[in-house]
Amino acid sequence: MIACTNNQKDQANRAKVEIFFLHLNPPKFHKINQMKLSKISAAFLFLLLFPLWSTSQNENTDLSMIYRIKQEGLKNSSIEDLAFWLTDFIGPRLTGSTGNNRGNEWAKKKMEELGFQNVRIEAARDFSRGGWDNLKTYAAITAPYYTNFACNPVAWTGSTKGIVKGDVVLLDVKSDSDLVKFKGKVSGKIVLMPSTATYEISYEPLASRLTDAQLKDISMSTTSPRRRSNVDFATISAQRALRLKIAEFLNVEGAAVILNNSGSYNVPRSTGANYTSGAKEPIAELNIPNEDYSRMERLIRHKVPVEMEVEIQNKFFDSPAVFNVIGELPGTDKLLKNEVVLLGAHIDSWHGGTGAADNASGCVVMLEALRILKNLDIAPRRTIRVALWGGEEQGLNGSRGYVEKYLVDPKTKEHKPDFDKFAGYFNMDNGSGKYRGIYMQENELVRPIFEEWLKPFADMGTSTIALRNTSGTDHLSFDAVGLPGFQFIQDEIEYGRGYHTTMDTYERLVMADLKHNAVITASSVYNAAMRNAKLPAKPVMKPKPETAPKLP
Ligand SMILES: [Zn+2]
Q1: Of 122, 120, 98, 124, which Cα lies nearest the Cα of 109?
Q2: Do residues 90 and 102 lie in contact, with contact meaning Cβ atoms separated by under 8 Å?
Q3: How far apart are CA 204 and CA 393, in angstroms?
Q4: Beta bridge partners of 166
Q5: How many angstroms is it from 56 CA to the middle of ligand 1?
Q6: Which of 302, 373, 389, 528 could bond 346 through an S-S bridge, CB–CB 3.0 to 4.6 Å?
Q7: CA 524/CA 317 separation, integer angstroms
Q8: How much distance in Å is there from the Cα of 116 to the middle of ligand 1?
């Protein structure tokens, strides 16, 4: 706790304690009666505890600035405009695709227009999969009757040779020994992959907000909120192994197209093949909605032949790196201007839809937060830097690359010069929902600070502080090297049905929530840039001693 207090105040408090000791006169001390003694003890205790108590009082939140941030962010917002350009206009932004590059160029130009400084697109990491664009996708059933349906190609899979027409083969395989039955039967065919997914009617509302009881649970629990499903890892790894065997078999046999069930998604899911640039192009592959998959499966099981026509054209090209787009408002304090408060979100998306909730929403909130501060002509003591990360969906590549480039050597683990100038990171990547509080990422030292920072937003529904961590996105890159990186607690809204599917479009965005989030992000990074000390990192613990018995 001490680490996050105002140093000067601490010194002043220590001085008060020393003065108190000087005023005690030891020879006369025995004459002091019990009443006086207890008063002195109380005063002494107060002075000892004052630095702790004052920790939460010392944030000196500038309420007039918070007022101005709220006014600018809620009444003069650019959120709708930014959201339109990044989703409808730019389109999907799969890592390494033309759309990803278009998005990066747009973001750079927008940052320059908004007056941010040191704006750049910089390579963060090598990208082994390379560039991939979908140029054409068409799929329809032609027998027993004509019907078209929505579908999404699997990224980094190949093209069909023109239009493929013919029988659909249901690959009814439960283990690799069943594959023998299909030898010589799938060459040039459209193959329906085995699936155990069934459609469950949902009685849940499409969108939801966190209730007071749920927020209380989050604030008191230590487990991650998004990891509640009863995943059977043994089954999953067995299914994965079978899929690899099937892929090998279909490759050898020369299937023309592979069709996957999108599982519980009744819209096509967007996924990607584990492809390495320069390798042989995988067989053309489509994800189709559960309902369309199941209709074909039932027809085939009833011995009704199903015919389809499919045409897919994809383009593979060189795209050897993941890029981040970076801009900043430079610091102005002589001593602190080289310290950096970072805010960010990933700009890459999957290729279905326009990556709106995941994660144009985070990008426009971060851009808008910095626009607000720029527009208010603030003079931040520390530099405030925004980063739109690339390659998050394939493993946090952009943010990990940034850490490797500026903060910690990936091989030696030695700290780079910017490590000690890192003053905190704020991330958004849980959809379009309103901020309801913040996760401390198990860093108890920031509790009194965040409590103070969120006070002006309590009446707007944002006051929950949760000790636990939240996983799965770019703040982890900083947390992993012992730096303070955080994510906010967000209402889920329609995240479940929207993300990673063709439905992740502008419609998934709740503009009022995004404006709210931009205001709180702006205020948080402003506070982090203005306070005397950097946000405290978690104390470093000694590594656990080796407990395994030593071999003689
Ligand atoms: Zn995301």
Answers
A1: 120
A2: yes
A3: 28
A4: 308
A5: 33
A6: 389
A7: 41
A8: 24
Closest by CA to 325, choosing from 477, 104, 135, is 104
Scored b (16 or more CB within 10 A) or e, 232-266 reads: eeeeeeeeeebeeebbebbeebebbbbbbbbbebb
Distance 391 CA to ligand 1 centre (A): 10
Q: What is the CA(460)–ligand 1 centre distance, in A?
A: 25
Q: How far is the centre of ligand 1, averaged over its atoms, from the C-alpha of 73 (Å)?
A: 24
For residue 424, what are the CA distances in angstroms to 88, 368, 513, 527?
32, 19, 24, 11
DSSP strand pairing (307-317 vs 131-143): antiparallel
For residue 97, report the distance from its CA to the centre of ligand 1, in Å.
Answer: 17
Q: 359: cis peptide before it, omega within 30°?
A: yes
pTM of the model: 0.87
Helical H runs in 138-253? 212-220, 233-253
- Going from the Cα of 361 to the center of ligand 1, the distance in angstroms, rounded, reads 10
Q: Which two tokens stand for residue 215?
A: 């927020």
- Measured CA to CA, the distance from residue 66 to residue 68 in angstroms comes to 5
284 closest CA partner among 250, 235, 330: 250
Tokens read off for 51: 């630095």
Q: How far is the CA of 165 from the centre of ligand 1 (A)?
A: 37
Distance, CA of 57 to CA of 238 (rounded, Å):
55
**What does the radius of gyration of the chain's CA atoms come to, in whole angstroms?**
28
Cα 302 to ligand 1 centre (Å): 41
Concatenated DSSP letters of 372-410: HHHHTT---SSEEEEEEES--TTTSHHHHHHIIIIIB-T
Instruction: Going residue by residue through the chain, which has 552 residues, state the pLDDT in tens, using 9 for 90 and above.
Output: 223 333 333 333 333 333 333 333 333 333 334 444 455 455 555 444 444 444 444 788 999 999 999 999 999 999 999 999 999 999 999 999 999 999 999 999 999 999 999 999 999 999 999 999 999 999 999 999 999 999 999 999 999 999 999 999 999 999 989 999 999 999 999 999 999 888 888 898 989 999 999 999 999 987 665 544 556 788 888 888 999 999 999 999 999 999 999 988 889 999 999 999 999 999 999 999 999 999 999 999 999 999 999 999 999 999 999 999 999 999 999 999 999 999 999 999 999 999 999 999 999 999 999 999 999 999 999 999 999 999 999 999 999 999 999 999 999 999 999 999 999 999 999 999 999 999 999 999 999 999 999 999 999 999 999 999 888 899 999 999 999 999 999 999 988 777 899 999 999 999 999 999 999 999 999 999 999 999 999 998 887 776 655 555
Cα separation, 355 vs 105, whole angstroms: 17
| DSSP-derived 3-state class of residue 230 | coil
Residue 430 Cα to ligand 1 midpoint, Å, equals 7
Q: 62 C-alpha vs ligand 1 centroid, how far in Å?
A: 32
How far, in Å, is the centroid of ligand 1 from the Cα of 149? 27
- Ligand 1 centre to CA of 349 (Å) is 7
